[in-house]
Amino acid sequence: MFEARIDASVLRECIESITAVVDEGRLRIAEDGLKLRGVDPANVAMVSFELHRDAFDDFRFKSESGGESAAAAEVGIDFVKLRGIIEIGGREEVDLKLDEQAQKLFTRMGSLAYTISLLDPSALRKEPKVPELEFPVQVIIETEEFRRTIRAAEKIGDHIMLGVDGEEFYMQIEGEMDKLRLGLRKEQLIHLTPGTLHSLYSLDYISAMSKGMSHAANITLNLGKDYPLQIDFEVAEGKGKVSYLLAPRIESE
Amino acid sequence: MFEARIDASVLRECIESITAVVDEGRLRIAEDGLKLRGVDPANVAMVSFELHRDAFDDFRFKSESGGESAAAAEVGIDFVKLRGIIEIGGREEVDLKLDEQAQKLFTRMGSLAYTISLLDPSALRKEPKVPELEFPVQVIIETEEFRRTIRAAEKIGDHIMLGVDGEEFYMQIEGEMDKLRLGLRKEQLIHLTPGTLHSLYSLDYISAMSKGMSHAANITLNLGKDYPLQIDFEVAEGKGKVSYLLAPRIESE
Amino acid sequence: MFEARIDASVLRECIESITAVVDEGRLRIAEDGLKLRGVDPANVAMVSFELHRDAFDDFRFKSESGGESAAAAEVGIDFVKLRGIIEIGGREEVDLKLDEQAQKLFTRMGSLAYTISLLDPSALRKEPKVPELEFPVQVIIETEEFRRTIRAAEKIGDHIMLGVDGEEFYMQIEGEMDKLRLGLRKEQLIHLTPGTLHSLYSLDYISAMSKGMSHAANITLNLGKDYPLQIDFEVAEGKGKVSYLLAPRIESE
User: Which domain holds residue A66?
Assistant: First the structure.
């Protein structure tokens, strides 16, 4: 049994953070809230999403199968479809109700009821394992500064380098004729671990991710040398958190 | 002889209510105002439009052929072209002047004069007869509630069911995987005739119509069982009225 | 040596006035400011651009080759690329720095550095000669009135006639079925030389130009009989000026 109520704009922010990486996925519903982990079809990007029950105005969950290991429900959801409908609601409340028997999720915004059939979890990709990673460097940056640089980068090239050089964090894009570089010193950032390393990433993925983080004030970039990038940020006013993981590109030369 | 002056935004609202169904049509000009009736090329939708002379800041008409039956001028107008020009004018006044001899309509907005050749009425479709219809149920609803549901429906399916179930009015769309339903009880509506009936309509037509009604605060839905839908609303602050008529789809099953 | 600082919105306005006619061009940098002259690929339109050093918050230039005739640097710039990046900057300051050795232009907006390779001037079209023209008629008109008419004209035809008839200035477009005409009497204009003449121009070019002039309050139209059109306006709050020159179309009849 799962029934909950949440602000439409909070739910939209959450769904947008997920659809920046995957269109559909297995949502795990448990007593303490919602969780999801998904990888994009090319196995290049991963999203980990958690939303605590406190983000809801009302949250009720009871496991239907009594067993201990089954203290969570796992449901397959087409997030792109759900996003389409939630966009219509402004700052209204959304009521959610799961019918596991019928394999339906009911949502209600005022007088508008939307029923979506659940996807068969066995037909969806398995929940990925999160690789064990250690990031030597962390950078905390204002989201808008990061997103603005990504928007400029899209006009120039396909790949973006993220790195630190001493006490400076930089983002760098090279096109055929031109080069864009954002350089921020430690005092212009919220946090920086000094170091000397960089990695190259596909801009398409970071562009998509930058749309998913638009409601967060700050993001944390976890960096290594020719290493995956992990971007962490909060949703739902701190009651939820999202991590994106992106594989590096090998620099050709 | 026809000469008139009208607010550009009122004229735009009127033209948009017409172009929601037809691109061109036969406008009848008489002493008490303007009238038009047209059907879409597929014969599925009809628009009836009336604008009283009081909607004009100035309105002068005199029949050129003295005969009694000819106490109106009938002119063929390309409304899509006319709309394109009127959109440029903000809240300016538009002067209209008909030259039946030259078969031209002159419009003037400030210093900008626009002359459009009339279409030959004999080349246009004949004015349709309005079928005699009796609608057992009337529902009066806020336009924005209706339009919002249509916008959500467009993301899901091709057909929409409109019906009443006791004291509830509903709009329902079923996609392959999902279902959207707006349900409004009598007290949430401006008016409802209780009953039990529904009809299915093509969403494309209702979507187009919903753009034509965007300036009206309320619309009246006239419903029957597997029956045409008639939507009535006012334009020009009550000095004009528009009716859309839409043939039902036969439910396959 | 060239180093300068300028408001991003002023620089954007300047670049947009150039890209209305050419994508790339030879920018001449001298002690008193910047100059550019370019023709479009079809040899139909020309832009002449001048920006005085006073438009800059800081402006330093020293010729590298000591010769007298070489008291200016000539650099080939892809203005469309540069515009793309400058659009990202709001009302920030932009720092410009030329490296003639490396054939690069450095721009910096806050922490964002953009380096663009210069185009080889010898690969660009030669700077056109400005033909000697004498315009019998001058009209000074509010830019917005002109641009609004162009927007309406785009819905009707491909050519536009500009002319004066006594003390009236007019713009006229004839489509297959319709005709648009703006007529402004002397007292509705900022200035008018009375006369009787007109010329026909390609609307595509004037549409592009009308985007380049959007920041100017007024424009001066220099007209003749079947003669080129010259449009003059100011940029950078009077510290720069732009002239567009457009060849007439021969009226077929």
Answer: 2-123
Measured between beta carbons, which residues in chain C are less than 8 angstroms from residue A156?
85
Percent of chain B with pLDDT over 90: 83
pLDDT value of residue A252: 60
Q: Are residues C148 and C218 in the same domain?
A: yes
What are A44-66's pLDDT values in tens digits?
999 999 999 999 999 999 987 65
* Chains contacting chain B through 3 or more C-beta pairs under 8 A: A, C
Query: What is the least distance, in Å, from the CA of A85 to any CA of chain B?
Result: 6
Identify whether residues C216 and C146 lie together within a single domain: yes
ipTM of the complex model = 0.86
**Cβ contact, residue pair A152, C114, below 8 Å:** yes
Do A104 and A165 sit in the same domain of this protein?
no
Provide the shortest C-alpha distance from residue C98 to chain A (in Å).
14
Q: What is the total count of domains within chain A?
A: 2
| Residue C19 belongs to some domain of the structure | yes
The confidence score (pLDDT) of residue B106 equals 96
Interface contacts (A, C; CB < 8 Å): 41
Q: Between residues B89 and B50, which one has the greater pLDDT?
A: B50
Q: Does A184 touch chain C (CB under 8 A)?
A: yes
Same structural domain, A217 and A150: yes
Point out the residues of chain A with pLDDT beneath 50: 69, 253
CATH number for the domain harbouring residue A145: 3.70.10.10
CB contact under 8 A, C177 and B84: no
Q: Are B140 and B189 in contact (CB under 8 A)?
A: yes
Residue C165 touches partner B, C-beta closer than 8 Å: no
Burial class (CB in 10 A: 0-12, 13-18, 19+), A10: buried
Nearest CA in chain B to A105: B178
Q: Which of B111, B115, B118 to mutate to test the interface with C (most CBs of C within 10 A)?
A: B111
Neighbouring chains to C with at least 3 Cβ pairs closer than 8 Å: A, B
Calculate mean pLDDT across residues C183-202. Answer: 97
C130 inside domain:
no
- Identify the pLDDT of residue B70: 56
At residue A27, what are phi and psi to the nearest 5 degrees? -95, 130
Cβ distance of B178 and A114 shorter than 8 Å? yes
- Each residue's pLDDT tens digit, C50-99: 999 999 999 999 987 655 545 889 999 999 999 998 988 767 899 999 99
> What amino acid is encoded at C156 in this protein?
I
| Whether residue A186 sits in one domain with residue A107 | no
Distance in Å from the first CA to the final CA of chain B:
56
Residue A109's closest chain B neighbor by CA?
Answer: B182
User: What is the pTM for the complete model shown?
Assistant: 0.90
Q: Do A116 and B177 touch (CB under 8 A)?
A: yes
Choose one of C77, C95, C123: the last residue of a domain.
C123
